[in-house]
């Protein structure tokens, strides 16, 4: 099957790109802090083929809801290889994960209360349970202008500066459950290394101040990956390792990372075709069978990486063409082509680096999910059939 014979629209995952990105990450971690765990972030792209790929490559599953937790189990991930984060856990899955020694990072007060069930079991069976806790610290004070919420601050985890973190740790320990890890994921606007410098410094400070005995520091995700012009993995991890070494040693403390975007973002293309060209009084609109909803579901991107594949070059120039999507929303416009050759039905537009927060975040609006293929060398295999009405209706009760 060749690319041009495949019916558009579809996503295409480049397995070679995934392989090389993951290897670079492993090499950088091995070099900086050999005692590491990579937890692939399911929320970034949880297509079954993708999560299974990371499972086969010895990554843990980083999940943030009971649904993602069940998904991980459904592909055969052992609890010991689950990192369970977030504020959307169910009590049942939370207790199951802690009981089966998953890495569970507490984020909400009610989870601490749920631990009572385990404390009881602990007394009965002599089992020892461990949890980690998500730290909320004022990153905006360390890296002004770089955080997602700026002056309003972030809402996840227990606040270090106002004493909430200490109170929560004490409450957990008083139940006979040991706090063995700190989770410090931060979603920044910039993804720059100084974010991780602050994370590492705060981890060291908290551990020393509270005299914690930790088996892991989880610095979360949010790294760049697959972009030559942006920071590379060693820049993050060499710096983090240098700081962590002040307090921890790599034989006893695991460094956990939870990348999503850095691994899957750049390995995925979205292939679309021109289906119509409309000339109006004000513009030329190039209508495609793709949509902005599929590669920019939050409608925040101002530009895309793309290539045009024209069937021939025998055509005129057009001063301004607006490439648009299949939905009925006027703002489903992807980009403007200025002073370019006129696009025609049958031409293809290939968007690159669209693997993160796209397939999993796109709405089921007007059209259902498209086909997904994986390219492995010369081979192209389908790994998801486009959804039909039966997928869409599954689980619904129409009458
Ligand atoms: C807890 C946690 N870990 C990991 C990630 C992955 O981030 P990214 O895809 O930017 O690497 C996120 C994303 O929001 C997250 O919330």
Please explain how this structure is put together.
It is a single chain. With 399 residues, the protein is an alpha/beta fold. The protein folds into 2 domains: 33-259, Alpha-Beta Barrel (TIM Barrel); 266-388, Beta Barrel (Lyase, Ornithine Decarboxylase, Chain A, domain 1). The chain contains 12 helices and 18 strands. Strands 1, 11, 12, 13, 14, 15, 16, 17 and 18 form a 9-stranded mixed β-sheet that branches. Helix 1 packs parallel to helix 9, helix 4 (91-99) crosses helix 5 (109-125) and helix 8 (193-209) runs parallel beside helix 9 (233-244). It is elongated.
Short précis:
The protein has 399 residues and is α/β, with parallel strands linked by helices.
State the main characteristics.
nine-stranded mixed β-sheet; 18 strands; about 400 residues; alpha/beta; Lyase, Ornithine Decarboxylase, Chain A, domain 1; binds pyridoxal-5'-phosphate; eight-stranded parallel barrel; TIM Barrel
